[in-house]
Amino acid sequence: MNEYIVGVDIGSSKICAAAGKYDKYGKLQIRGITSVSYSGMKNGVIVDMDNTANAIKNCIKQLEGMVDTQVLGFYISLPSRIGTLVSNRGVVAVASDDREISQKDVKRVINAAKIVKVPTDKEIIGVIPKQYIIDGYDKIKDPVGMSASRLEVDSYVILAESTVISNLFKTVEKAGYEVLGMVFQPMADAEVVLKKEEMDLGCALVNIGADSIDISIYKDEKLSYTSCINIGGNSITNDIAICLKLPFSEAEKLKIKYGIIGIDNLELKDSIKVNLGYNNVIKINSSMLLDVIEARAEELLKLIMKNLKESGQYSQISGIVIAGGGLATIKGIEELGEYVFKKPVRVGTPDYVGAINPAYVSAVGTVRDVLNTMKANKSNNNVEDEAAVACEETSKKTSSKQKGPIIKIKEFLTEFFE
């Protein structure tokens, strides 16, 4: 595990990439992180393959410069909006004579859970266990090492549209890289920004992007609900552009620089100078700018509130955590959120040097999830690291291009959530 693991979040307006590995003390270190703006994706679907491929290439090249390592492949986060969760149960008999449950038994029961009717336009991309059951005893988190004659798993089977996944893979290949695996974004995000107590008591994680809002609810440390709203932070930018008669790009800059809600906005001057180029400088009313930002931000939060209530789990939520780049970077969003939700609200950021930005949550979460999975597989198997075997196979395939070994996991989400 001495090589960097690279996680990439292909969002609606930005591609974020992070590189990390464990240090000698077994602690994850994020050694490089960067992002590139682009316009090749809408609502999780590739709409411009060339634009997206070029953005991926530029992003990875920037990352390579930071870590001084060639990247041949990476892991990507899969947004919940392009995946569907289907509940299903798998059942197997414990194979060993002494009835001790092994890691192989867990893999077998996960595969058994995949036996579900799949629409012709979708495919199974992974399984998320909710709980294990041994001989009728439920709520087992890790059955390995326990004794039983029968092992069951209650799980979510993740389905995704085949064409969407295929086009995503083709775009990465077009950029000159390989998809080494996928991580379900809500799970990766939760590992980075949610506390164990929050996941146990009940918490909503809201990832607000440019054109969509992904909502996940956790209870008893398990994912219990996912949903998506097809509107995001770009709606604020559009409002600024229309109301103040500005180009979209300038409106976005104003939102990022002056996005403030609440009493702090009194610090702004009456007017703000905007340079439109060619010596064309205009003044805009700062109070109007802030009124537009606050009005749309409140509307987005009310849409989230409506979705949470429709989930039927709102009363079980102890707090809300906001991540992503759409609203999380606006000052005062926590106070406005508490006013709308009537519950504690905080902005979630990765707790790593150089990556303390809510927009980097999914990229960092992907790196952490992959490394944690590799570590768990190694400790559970107590034999040669499965990732190292895959690494050797990958080295043979890419020896002409590769300077150092790149770790590859053959199975995607199934192993990630065991």
From TrEMBL:
Q: Which domain of life is it from?
A: Bacteria
InterPro entries of this UniProt entry? Answer: ATPase_NBD, Cell_div_FtsA, FtsA/MreB, SHS2_FtsA
Its placement in the membrane is given as: Peripheral membrane protein
Q: Could you tell me which SMART domains the record lists for this protein?
A: FtsA
Task: Give yes or no: UniProt keyword Cell division.
Answer: yes
Q: Does the keyword Cell division apply?
A: yes
Task: Spell out the protein name for this chain.
Answer: Cell division protein FtsA
Species of the source = Clostridium oceanicum
Q: What is the lineage of its organism?
A: Bacteria, Bacillati, Bacillota, Clostridia, Eubacteriales
Question: Per UniProt, what is the name of the gene that codes for the protein in this document?
Answer: ftsA
